[in-house]
Amino acid sequence: MNTHADRAEALFKSGYNCAQSLIGAFEGEIGLDFETSMRLASSFGGGMGRLREVCGALTGLFMVVGLQSGYSDPEDYEAKTRHYQLVQDLAAQFRDRFGTILCRDLLELEETVSEPVPEKRTEAYYERRPCAEYIRFAASLLDAESRSQTNTQPD
Predict the structure, then answer these.
(1) How far apart are CA 61 and CA 21, in angstroms?
(2) Distance CA 69, CA 52 (A)
(3) Which residues contact 37 (CB under 8 A, 6 or more apart)?
């Protein structure tokens, strides 16, 4: 069975960044074509443009959850509150699992800002990077959230 987590990991291992991998794995459910999804998420790899801030897997998760259940009316404070609560809950689950939501801490990097040039994707790169685990977990959080939303929908 090809799960969202499998698809996200495959996208990552084919060269896409963490955020692109998440959003691409949910392409069929978010109403965006693949090219648009990849462009939208392209700025968020490496903890936002390799700034090593919030993990790209988590920002990809946020983009997907926003497209799936976000609000569009800026005056709908109840919807905004519900959505922000969901984002905070998902971030807390990620933090509980990995201890942080920051890319630099997840990768145990001492520098807060790195060069803008991405590393070449080689077998050695994937062997030393734990990102696939973060991507798989973020995809599983989205799947669990989707199941939860389906189970709470009125009949």
Answers:
(1) 10
(2) 27
(3) 20, 23, 24, 27, 30
> Does residue 154 have a pLDDT over 60?
no
What average pLDDT does this structure show over 57-82? Answer: 96
| Secondary structure class of 79 (helix, strand, coil) | helix
Q: What are residue 54's phi and psi, to 5 degrees?
A: -65, 135
In degrees, rounded to 5, the angle at the alpha carbon of residue 44 between the alpha carbons of residues 43 and 46 is 110
How many residues does the structure list for the chain?
155
φ, ψ of residue 136 in degrees (nearest 5): -60, -45
Could you tell me the CA-to-CA distances from 70 to 25, 78, 100, 124, 125 in Å, in that order? 18, 12, 24, 38, 35
> What DSSP state is assigned to residue 64?
H
Q: Is 102 helix (H, G, I), strand (E, B) or coil?
A: strand
Angstrom distance (rounded) from CA 155 to CA 150: 10
Question: For helices 131-152 and 4-13, what crossing angle results, to 10°?
Answer: 150
Summarised one tens digit per residue, pLDDT across range 75-103 is 999 999 999 999 999 999 999 999 999 99
Are 125 and 119 in contact by the 8 Å Cβ rule? The answer is yes
Distance of CA 113 to the CA centre of its chain: 20
